[in-house]
């Protein structure tokens, strides 16, 4: 039994943020299952906000549109505003996270439905103002999308974060159009600037921008601009091309997204419906032939098709990669936006064309130099390989596939998949025990860890852990497995002998802090977690595993993700996705040794058994950076192709194995 709230019995909290929380509930009188969103009390006490909230919900409820989440009730109870809607299967964030990015046809279908709802809202004189993947509810069968989240429009504070009507920070600015950010003006112009920002909030084209962000997320599983497209970051910087992150996306959809994300509202599609029509046409219109050139431009006489409904210019050519220069100096701080270390978001494909012959000669992967997708060498693997781990003898690889909820077993001598092991929902990470007897697979969508006995490839146990686990690491003797629980802000510690979970270690109590990867020192005394925070600097946390105490918070780069520790436990290496760097940390005293510039959007990392090289997978530039740990310098940049994800290195340090969509690439490494 749950607790009572007005006419409802609250059963389970689905999620919460600083502005509200959502519960699955049952309406006592009817037995209907609903989702109840309750706003925090201070927002309910704000009279202007309360009046706007109730008025907007009343207007939306009157629309009764097929693709607007049906509102069953909205009122105030015990001093808290709430709105109840039908309880559906989940939102777009959950679907993409648990099942992987949508195929282009399915993504466009969702966009068409959301666009139809937005047009109805706009025709009624309203603007959603906070459209993002979590505000799109999805019914699985038949696939039906519903627009949700009305009544709580988003404004933007001076610090670039989304704020509520009552002033509470509640969202990152990933989906917010650049014109909505307040500009730095002189004191006498602040009133006029505030009026401009308020006026922009009523422009339907801010929803068109957010709809383009939504399509990009549905296609790739990641935001177009992880840190937002804020004016101070450059209003005219081009958005990334979705097809560089995921194979099979038509070039036409890239152009539609570019137009929808135009910094100038006049260059966007005028309505959500027009955006959806252009997306549908991109799927059904044959592509203009392209010839692979190192610049990625059309063949002579060809041109990039443009949509007649927009005056948007095609995206500018890729910016060149900076010339090699002095590496950043050691220091404890993160690189700043103005110190020249931020990497450009788009990397030319010239590198790929120049390196293709060398990659072939080395037995590596052929990489496209233009817009097309060339044949790829490597080990074919069904689905979308993600995390990858090698057996201690280097003869077998194990790789997760979140789209099929399986782990593929690869014979590296035969270069073939020899088995597929079903595990839990959305497997995301894998680690092998030091003796090679067991694999520990993190099931992100099932809040569990599957333990596979490697001898016969059988799941022998499934251990419940914390909410939304993301990574797992074992100590040197394999006695404990440490699992990062992203949503709960904890580390679950599994006793591998009893297969039970001890009391979790607290990492962060702040909502919005997101731990991603975890490593453990060889003696098991400390766990390190890469942490992205909305409230403070992104950091590397050092946790005492014996006392449940955070020993150090070390500032690193922006959006830290990939994390490894040297075999002797002396150094940790953190890949910072948003600024294209690798932070080198002295794990003993918590000091930053240096920051190494690598490729664009570094994601996963691995370290050789002798500790000589750190390998960094760069998702956007589609390369593998090889860093010499003696000099802390990049000694090789190897093209990978595809949209590289996980990486592992052979025990002898001679080869890297990189997970790509549909394949695992085998790359020779420098001596």
UniProtKB/TrEMBL annotation:
It comes from Pseudonocardia humida. It holds the Pfam family Pkinase. Transmembrane segments: none annotated. It comes from the Bacteria. PANTHER family: DIHYDRO-HEME D1 DEHYDROGENASE (PTHR47197:SF3), PROTEIN NIRF (PTHR47197). Gene3D superfamilies: Phosphorylase Kinase, domain 1, Transferase(Phosphotransferase) domain 1, YVTN repeat-like/Quinoprotein amine dehydrogenase. Residues 8-291 form the Protein kinase domain. Residues 313-333 have a biased composition (Pro residues). SUPFAM superfamilies: Nitrous oxide reductase, N-terminal domain, Protein kinase-like (PK-like). Residues 224-248, 286-343 are annotated as: Disordered. This is Beta-propeller fold lactonase family protein.
């Amino acid at each position: 039994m749950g607790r009572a709230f007005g006419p409802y019995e609250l059963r389970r909290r689905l999620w919460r943020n600083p502005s509200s929380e959502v519960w699955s509930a049952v309406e006592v009188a009817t037995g209907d299952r609903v989702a109840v969103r309750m706003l925090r009390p201070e927002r309910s006490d704000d009279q202007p906000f309360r009046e706007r909230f109730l008025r907007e919900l009343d207007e939306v409820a009157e629309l009764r549109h097929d693709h607007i989440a049906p509102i069953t009730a909205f009122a105030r109870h015990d001093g808290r505003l709430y709105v109840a809607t039908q309880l559906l299967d989940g939102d777009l964030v959950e679907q993409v996270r648990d099942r992987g990015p949508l195929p282009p046809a399915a993504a466009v279908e969702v966009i068409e439905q959301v666009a139809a709802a937005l047009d109805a809202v706009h025709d009624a004189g309203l603007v959603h103002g906070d459209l993002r993947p979590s505000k799109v509810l999805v019914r699985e069968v038949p696939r039906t999308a519903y627009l949700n989240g009305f009544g709580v429009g988003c404004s933007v504070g001076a610090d670039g974060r989304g704020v509520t009507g009552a002033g509470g920070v509640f969202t990152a600015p990933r989906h917010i159009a650049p014109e909505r950010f307040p500009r730095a003006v002189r004191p006498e112009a602040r009133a006029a600037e505030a009026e401009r920002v308020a006026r922009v909030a009523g422009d339907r084209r801010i929803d068109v921008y957010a709809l383009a962000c939504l399509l990009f997320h549905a296609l790739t599983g990641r935001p177009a601009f992880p840190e937002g497209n804020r004016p101070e970051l450059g209003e005219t910087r081009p958005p990334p091309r979705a097809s560089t992150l995921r194979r099979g996306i038509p070039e036409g959809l890239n152009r539609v997204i570019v137009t929808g994300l135009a910094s100038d509202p006049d260059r966007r599609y005028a309505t959500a419906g027009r955006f959806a029509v252009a997306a549908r046409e991109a799927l059904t219109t044959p592509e203009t032939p392209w010839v692979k050139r190192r610049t990625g431009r059309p063949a002579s006489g060809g041109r990039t098709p443009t949509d007649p409904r927009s005056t948007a210019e095609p995206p500018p050519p890729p910016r060149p990669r900076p010339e090699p220069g002095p590496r950043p100096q050691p220091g404890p701080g993160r690189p700043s936006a103005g110190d020249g270390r931020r990497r450009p978001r788009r990397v030319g494909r010239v590198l790929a064309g120049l390196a293709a012959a060398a990659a072939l000669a080395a037995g590596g992967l052929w990489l496209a130099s233009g817009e097309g997708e060339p044949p790829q060498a490597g080990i074919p693997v069904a689905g979308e390989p993600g995390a990858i781990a090698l057996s201690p003898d280097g003869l077998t690889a194990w790789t997760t596939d979140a789209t099929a909820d399986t782990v593929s077993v690869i014979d590296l001598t035969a270069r073939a998949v020899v088995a597929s092991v079903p595990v839990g929902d959305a497997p995301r990470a894998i680690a092998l025990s030091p003796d090679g007897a067991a694999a520990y697979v993190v099931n992100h969508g099932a809040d569990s860890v599957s333990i596979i006995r490697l001898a016969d490839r059988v799941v022998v146990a499934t251990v419940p852990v914390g909410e939304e686990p993301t990574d797992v690491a074992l100590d040197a003797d394999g006695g404990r497995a440490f699992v990062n629980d992203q949503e709960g802000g904890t580390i679950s510690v599994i006793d591998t002998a009893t297969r039970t979970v001890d009391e979790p270690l607290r990492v962060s109590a702040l909502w919005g802090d997101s731990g991603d990867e975890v490593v453990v020192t060889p003696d098991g005394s400390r766990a390190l977690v890469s942490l992205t925070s909305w409230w403070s600097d992104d950091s590397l946390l050092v946790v005492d595993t014996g006392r449940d105490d955070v020993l150090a918070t070390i500032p690193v780069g922006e959006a830290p993700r990939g994390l490894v520790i040297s075999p002797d436990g002396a150094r940790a290496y953190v890949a910072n996705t948003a600024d294209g760097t690798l932070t080198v940390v002295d794990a003993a005293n918590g000091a930053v040794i240096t920051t190494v510039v690598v490729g664009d959007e570094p994601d996963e990392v691995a370290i050789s058994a002798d500790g000589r090289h750190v390998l960094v997978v760069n998702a956007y530039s589609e390369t593998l950076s090889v860093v010499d740990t003696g000099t802390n310098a990049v000694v090789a940049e190897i093209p990978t192709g595809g949209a590289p994800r996980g990486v592992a290195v052979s025990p002898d340090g001679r080869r890297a194995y990189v997970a790509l969509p549909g394949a695992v690439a085998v790359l020779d490494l420098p001596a």
